Structures
1.
Amino acid sequence: MDDARELSRRTALALGGSGALGGALILAGCAPTDSGDSGGDGAGADSGSTTDGGSGDGASAPTDAAGEDVAALADIPVGGSISATIGGEPVLLSQPTAGEVVAFSAICTHQRCTVAPERASFVCPCHGSMFDPTTGEVEQGPALEPLPSVPVTVDGDRVIAG
Ligand code: FES
């Protein structure tokens, strides 16, 4: 009888422990990501927090990719957008007017899914957040933060990182 009571108590503790852990994981998963650091290696050693407060300055380019040839200007429709990569990170390139290109991280600020151009917007396939393709601002949640801008320049008929 004592054994049964002890087993029951252990089971409850185990369930409580996993429940609390599960709750913490759920909370972590639902929190808007604000670290701005997309360089995680997936090894699990990253605590996921930084000391900078997270809101950032709006630009989160992979700085070591400056000078990288990103795309042909002609591949980006005027008034449209394409997906690309800079420094191995997914980005979105828009050409609001002929010869003017803006770029944004394609990592959703909600839970880090990869956002893609869709019609006249950037759309996250995971929970439906939508972003303005010329400013990165949130058009529709659940994301709360805009897509960080990524510096690019137009050099002749090429789009260059930096
Ligand atoms: Fe949830 Fe993008 S990850 S809307």
2.
Amino acid sequence: MALLSVVLPAYNEEMNIANTAETLRNLFEREEIDYELIFISDGSGDNTFAEICKAAKENPRVRGAEFSRNFGKEAGIFAGLELSSGDAVVVMDCDLQHPPEAIPEMWKLWQEGAEIVEGIKSKRGKESFFYKISAGLFYRIMSRLIKMDMSSSSDFKLLDRKVVQVLLNLPERNTFFRALTFWAGFETKTVEYEVQERKYGSSRWSFFSLMKYAVDNATSFSTLPLQLVTIMGMISIGFSVILAVQTLARYLMGNAVEGFTTVILLILIIGGFIMLSLGIIGHYIARIYEEVKGRPKYIISKVTDNVRGNVTGSWKKL
Ligand code: UDP
Ligand code: MG
């Protein structure tokens, strides 16, 4: 019988673990799906990992790990994929905002041959005005940059073992899970779902963390910002040709004293362009620097009793 793994990254979600584990257990027992649940506590400051251990004691199909510090959701997802052994793996939030009822449908599509099943948001859950604007902007920028429509995609997906292996074999440290499955290709089906409301706790994303996420992902997934530098250079050159002609003409006509405003404007515009360009290039250098160091994506500090392997440094399966 095929095994379904569910990967659930959790950051300070002590209130959600038990409830989520129970809900999924009931669902899979009802649907007669062979399953395992993998909770990754992302360096939580509360009792999330203790809750995971408790859930693992109650149900041997629950396994989990704790990171040595907060490494971010991407790292959590990848650690979960690494620990999973299912023939298909579902990644979902552990706050149940991704409705578990959609999983059997994904599972069915997988059995019919789909290699990736994308969860597509049909309606966004209740979100604050500020969140809506920043998330909207984020998706608009991202869709542009990576040339895929990201507005309704999410991290709620089912992946075939083949796809999981492809993702785990990627050498890079900066990953963007949501877009990587598009990049990987494979036979893809979609399932629509409605984003649920969060029962306990609050969203972990602030405006600034979302913006940082956008910039990090944009620079790790696209080189378009670099081309922007070229465009800005061209604009400056265009300006300078026009002004050079004008200045020369005035000089030859003998009235070249004026032009203070032009000088100030030019200094400001060109200074701005140069600094922006340096910033963009700097971002890419930072990415390269991080990749070159080759540090692991995450460090596991603790695992539940039913997980075996080397837990010092990044995870290596025995
Ligand atoms: N999460 C994580 N590490 C982080 C931030 C979030 O593992 O640094 C997890 C979090 O526990 C949740 C999921 O990622 O399971 C989505 O986070 P959240 O619900 O805060 O985001 P939202 O649903 O508002 O997009
Ligand atoms: Mg959430």
3.
Amino acid sequence: MRQNHLLPCLLVLLTVACAPAPQSELHIVPQPVSVTTGEGFVSLAGQSVWVDQAFGGEAVAAVEDFAARLSKASGRKSRMVSELSQAGICFVLDETLAPEAYTLVAGADGVEVGASAMRGVLYGLATLQQMLPEAVFTGTRQRCVSWSVPCVQISDFPRFGYRGLHLDPCRHFWEAREVKRYIDVMALYKLNTFHFHLNDDQGWRVEIKSRPLLTEIGSVRSGSCIKAEYGNSDGIPHGGFYTQEQLREIVDYAASKGIDIIPEIDLPGHMLAALAAYPELGCTGGPYEVWTRWGVSDDVLCIGKEETFAFLEDVLGELCEIFPSKYIHIGGDECPKDRWKECPLCQARIRQLGLKDTRHGTKEQYLQNYVTARLQSFLEGKGRSIIGWDEILEGELAPGATVMSWRGTEGGVEASARGFDVIMAPYTYLYLDYYQSDKRELEPYAIGGYLPVEKVYSYEPFDELDEFQQSHILGVQANLWTEYIATPEHLEYMLLPRLLALSEIQWCPRDGRDFERFKESLPRQFAILDAMDYTYSQDVFGIYGMPSK
Ligand code: ACM
Ligand code: ZN
């Protein structure tokens, strides 16, 4: 067994060639829970690597990939070895740790990462890589740098079990490779849940084999509106969708990085792309068009028709075949009730169900509750749980639903008081489509708002909540809608570095956050993002606008 982790790293000092020794400030994001720095450094160049096979194939593959990149970048081979005693870098099983926790000890004889499960291994690895020269992320040979890391003892685990990020591929479509890059940067900062918003008024993005017109017709719009001039389309067709095969591949890719994907079918509103394909599912029967403007459409699914439920069950049934996630997101936001008020079939359904206006809601609101409850029981029959935007809370909501609070924190405060699980994603702190700087004239056009990285960082999900409510907060998520974001560079620019601030809300203990310390870590993180060729904003340092590449 390896021992004596924190012996002074004398040996190593000899191996440092031509670069100055690394500074002992680690600048890791998210900041680990506990870091104790020792004396000296240990060089990892050429160190052999061992991983306990009990972690499973994906963890082993991640470690092997790291060893291969370290070898290439350092120019000295880090072999995978089958004997723990031969290893200078090892990943050992420690069943006393929680599944997402890890320990990392760097001492004279190398580095030992302890974990009890795959995610702990991945997070230990993520931390270790942030301690190394950034070339390790790409495996690009980097001469004349030190491959030493400071002797240190880290003990780390997340504050929240749900650490989410959302992406909208409907307003603008993102190719599978771009989605994977998005997942890569999530993994770098220890997020574990990707919320994939797969349909909206402006495009249907998931292949549904039993309903082929959804993608044949619903995946393409004839143009996009120019900035906020709603009457003004650019006339350039925009579209795209993911095949089921591509989505399965993305699911596997994300899983290998410790990330679950929660798919969303937004219903019963935000359905114009589906209505363009199947107009018989609307109250008026159409015709409808995949929307070329942004906003909230009055045209929604007709709830008076049984065909609507047959359609939704087909869609959600196929979705469950693609995505193994515990949760399926059924949207529920921004569903105007105008059509239902006028529709004889919707009104007949309201009468049949005996729905009435009350002090708490209109009968049309209760009709939306009926949709939610019916799909909840359909999905529970398949072993899944639902998440909905906070509108699902209006009126009645069956136990077992999880509420995603986006219209501020109020929905989350109320839902948790009523005993529902909650994911906090308030637009006031976590909508990444807002401007990052107040120098709007220097920024790419955005939907509005002003959300600098400092404001994101200041969000505290437990403010306003008592202990009972806190126990219902599963975690925190940021959302990235893409009405005005049309290129991968712009998408990344809006995401970064606000994603890093999000990661500290999600990971660090409440008293473990400090904006000044976080800000000091950004130059180091920017070097990593540069190596991985991500585009990011430097507004926080007074450098405004998107860099041209
Ligand atoms: C939303 O931003 N409409 C959930
Ligand atoms: Zn109707």
